[in-house]
Amino acid sequence: MKDFNTYLKSTELSSKFACELGLKGGFVNFRNSGARGGIKEFTVSLSSLLQGLYDIKSNIAHFSGLTSYVEKGWRDAGSHYFQDLVLNSMITVQTKPCFTTLSKVISWANNEREVDYNDNEIDLSVSSLEQAITHLEALIVKYSPYSNPTVEVSNIRKVEEIKSTQIRDFAYQVFSILFRDNLSSIELIMSEKGEDNKVDLPFLPKVFILTDTELQEDTLSTGQANTLRFFTRPLILETSYAYISTQWYGDERVGLSFQSLKQFLHKHFPHYEISKKDGEYTLISCSKNQVITNKLPKPFLLLAGISGTGKTRFVREQAKATGCLSETYCLTSVRPDWHEPSDLLGYVSRLGNRPQYVATDVLRFIVKAWREIIKKIEKDDNGHALDWRGRELDDIRPFWLCLDEMNLAPVEQYFADYLSVLETRCWNEPDKLQESGLSYVYECEPLIKGEVFTSLDVDISGEANNDSDKPSTQLAKDLGFDLTKPLDKDIWDYFLMHGISIPFNLIVAGTVNMDETTHGFSRKVIDRALSVDFGEFFPNNIDEFFEPKTEPKKLSFPLNSHAKHEQFHSIAADPDAAKTKAFFKAINEVLLGTPFELAFRAFNELCLSVISFTPETGEELDAVFDDFLMCKVLPRIEGDEDKLTTRKGEALLQQLTETLSEALKTIWDSERVDLLRENKGSVEKVIKVRCRSKLKLEYMLSKLDSGFTSFWP
Known about the structure:
By secondary structure, the chain is of the alpha+beta class. Helices cover 37% and strands 17% of the residues. It contains 27 helices and 32 strands. The strands form 13 sheets. The chain has a five-stranded parallel beta sheet, with helices on both faces. A three-stranded antiparallel beta sheet has the order 1-2-3. α6 packs across α7 and α26 packs antiparallel against α27 (692-704). The N and C termini lie far apart (77 Å). Residues 145-160 and 193-200 have low confidence and may be disordered.
C-alpha cells in the first residue's frame, strides 16, 4: 500500500485539484481548479475528513445516489449531514475540491491505481468507506500526541482528559493513558482465568495483540479487503508490544463498543470515567491522590437558609472536586411521609414466597463508600471474616450524600439510627492501634446488623435455604457486588457477619429550608450536626453572579471522632488546649442551668474543630471559636424572654454578648479569617469577614423585641 502523501501527489496527473499532506502531517492542503478566478489553497484536518466519512456512512441512503459528482447534490447533502464545522463550511463554498479530496482518501485506502482516479467519481460502497475509515484512523494516530497533558484544576484535583468524536481513536487514546506507566497490567488482566478469578468481559481477548516483535500491516489485517483490524502503532513495554484493536463501535452492540469500554474501565480502572455527549467521547481521570487538607470536624452538615441560595449545588461541587461525580455523589430527596429509618436504609419485605431486603439508593451509596475504603478482609483459620484492612487515607475519596429538603419529614424519626450510630465512631484508640500495627484503626457500630441479611435465607420452618439464588445473594447483587470476585465476596461475607456501619469517608449534608412547610430541629439533632447558616457562610453576592471572585474551600471527611490532649501539641495557637477550655467554660457559665447548657459532646466537638483547622495565630483561633458558636451553640437557642434568662435572672443573650466581646476581643469589633472560603484566581487567597456570632446575636436580640427569637430567620 502506497504512502498517503505519495498517492495524493501521484493523482495530480489525473486530477485538476492538487492535494497533499501537510508538512507536519495531521492535515491536508488542497486547491481549487482556478477556473473561476485564480487558484486558492485550503486546509482541512485528517480528523475532519474522518468525520466526513463517518457521516457519509451513517447517512448512506442520502449519499448513495451521489457517486457521480453533482454540485448541488453534494453541497446540500454535505451542509446537512457533515457534523464537522470546518468540513461543513467548506463543502458549501468549495464543493468540488472537498469532493475530490474525500474521493482520493477512499481510493488510497482501497489500493486504487492513481491513473484510474477520476475527479467526477467517488466509491461510496460500505466496504470501501469502512476501509477508508480504518486506514485514516491509523494515519491520524501517527500524527497525534502519544498522550494528552495533565491539566491542573485548582490545587486540589488533577484531571486528565481526552476528547474525540471517533470511538476507535478514542479507545486507542484511552488505552494509551491507562497503560503508559504500567503496560504489564495488560498481561495481568488477560491472564485472569479460572472460576475464582474469571474474566467477565468476553470481548477482552479481541482488545489486544501481545507480541515480542513489531508487526506489519498485513499481520494486523484480515479478509479479502485486507481490512486493518489493529492500530499499527503499538504500546511498548520494554521488549514487548501491545497492539490495540480498531474494531470499536459507538452503539450498544455486543463486542467492542462504547458500553463494553465503559464496562472494562469500571472493572479494571474504576477511577476513570468515560462519557458520550453530542457525538463526543470524553475520558476523565478521577485521580485518588487528591489529598484535601481541609478536614471537617464532623461528617454531618445541616445547610440551612432560604430557598435558592445554592445549598444543593454546594454539595455537588464538593463531590465533583474530589472525584468522579457518578461515584462520589448521591442526591436523595426526602419525602414528607418518611417516619422511620427503613425509608432511608431499606427494609425486609415478606411479600411473596420468601423474604427479600428492599434496598435504597442511600444504602447502595453507603456500600459503595465502604468498597472505596476496604482493600482486604482478614479471616480466621476457618475462613470467617474477622476484620477489614483499608487503603491509605490519601487514596480514599470523600463520598457526599445530599439529603435534599431534609426537614420535610421529622429528622428525629427517619434519621434516628444514623444519629445514634454516628456517636459510636472511634478512631485510633492507642491500644488497638498499637496491637494492630496499622496506620489507622476505625470502628463503628452497624447501621444494619448482619443478622438482618442472614435471616433472609432461613425459611419459615427455620431451616437454611440452600438455594444458589438465595435472597442474600440477590441483595448482594443489588448492592453492586460481583460475588465471583474474591474481594467482593469477602466484603459481603464481612457484612453478613458484622453488619454495615457508617463508613468514615461518608459525609452527609442535609439541605434545609426554614419555612412554614418544614419541621424544626430538636437539640438532639443540632448537637450531632454542624449547622451552617448558608447565607452567612456563603453569601449570595449578585455582583459576582457572572464572574465569582470567591469560592468555597474543598472539604473532606474527618480523621478524628474523640479529641485527645496530645493532638493539641501541634496547634501553634493553643498547644496545651488552655485557651479552648477557657473559652468553652466562659460561654457555658452563661448557659449553665438553662435548656441550652453544653456538655461533653459539645466540648469534644469544639476541640475537634480546633484540631481540624489547626489555627496558627490568636486571630485564627478566635475565628474557629466564632464558627463553633454559629454551628453548635447559637442554633440551639430560641424562646421568649422567660426562657432566655440565666440562672442569675439576667438576660441570656445580653449576658452572652458581653462574655463573647471579651472572649473574642481580637475579632469582635474587627474582621476575621474566613475558614471555609477563599479568593478565586488570586495570589492572595485569604478572605476577611466580620465576626459572625456578633452579627447573629444582634439579629436575635432585635427579634426578641417581638416577644420570641431564634437563630433561624
